[in-house]
UniProtKB/TrEMBL annotation:
This is Riboflavin biosynthesis protein RibD. Gene3D superfamilies: Dihydrofolate Reductase, subunit A (3.40.430.10). It comes from Filimonas zeae. Residues 3-182 form the Bacterial bifunctional deaminase-reductase C-terminal domain. GO terms for biological process: riboflavin biosynthetic process.
Amino acid sequence: MGKIVLFMHTSLDGFAAGVNGEMDWIHVDDEIFDFGAERITRTNTALYGRVTFEMMEGYWPTAAEQPGASKHDKEHSAWYKTARKVVLSNSLDQAAHANTTVIGKEDYPAAIKKIKEETEGEILLFGSPSTAHALLAENLIDECWLFVNPVLLGEGIPVFKNIKEKQLLKLVKAHVFSSGVVCLQHQVMRTG
């Protein structure tokens, strides 16, 4: 059975994006890209909300073909083209996107549970704060990989929101990058 792993950048004060969705404060470099790529290549299933999916679709399918494409662009573009994509959306047209399953927001708890049952390994939830909020509310996330950036935003879109009941987490690993970004890997502890 598959498990859902939240893969998200956060500010030190717990925001996934600025008030208007700004992400210009997120630090990424080759060290972080290589660390993330090692993890990403262990799976072939990605989960997104519509906004993040449209942002990914606008870049990754042709990123490797652009002049001056980086090593990361080439590797992630190749992975993205073959990965199974699952998108929570009430408005996205599934037929317009290859290798993509669209799940209506009203149907997502049962549909996500079915996808977990049918999937070997991990399902990576990239960014997508509103989708993370929905899945956390239904206790559907199994692990969190948070890339904590050394910045305080003061306000914005929170990483965690609308959690119905306390969820205990166990720190599995912490990795400090030379930039000061820290990756915290937590496993969600299930009771009962």
